[in-house]
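User: Predict the structure for this protein chain, please.
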Amino acid sequence: MTRLIPRDERFFALLADDSANLLEAAQLLQSMLTSYDRLDERVDEIRRVEHAGDVIDHEIELRLEKAFITPFDREDIHTLVSRLDDVVDGVQEIAETCVIYDIQTITDEGRQLADILAGQAIELRAAVAKLDGFKGIDGHLRQVHELENRADALSRSAVARLFREEKDAVNVIKWRDVYRVLEDTIDAAEDAAEVIERMWHKAG
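Assistant: Here is the predicted structure, written as structure tokens:
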């Protein structure tokens, strides 16, 4: 039977592409802060991924405008796309801040926070892949929250050590800003998980 009201089946695939793009950005940042070489090249790679995410987001928004039926509430889809984009934008801001501030070496805490963000990205990618049915999604969402809790404690200790041990006031200002953007981006990943959780509860 011909469907009288067209349903756009591409939303799941596009959201999966969006979360995969986020994961690539987070892993590029993780690699950058681990190796800390070829900085301009690595920042350009992250910018390329950020632009690719904008293209995906634009297509999702266009489809939201045209679709009669969507798999989830339109506002929830819009909000999820926006939160995923916040994470990728944060990744770009972290990378660019390190270059603009002429950060010479990465602290252990900086690398650990980038690792946490990459871990969240893995879990978000897995959660988005399970939006069609939500089966087994709770463990991924829980892990995103647990990683954010670890980041909170790590950020506090990092800032405390910075003020306690760093003698150069300029470096204190630089790293305080870097830690802030890292923490904000990790928080944005948790925000994305909370949107997915809300979608899950509505579906249940």
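The two ends are 28 Å apart (CA to CA).
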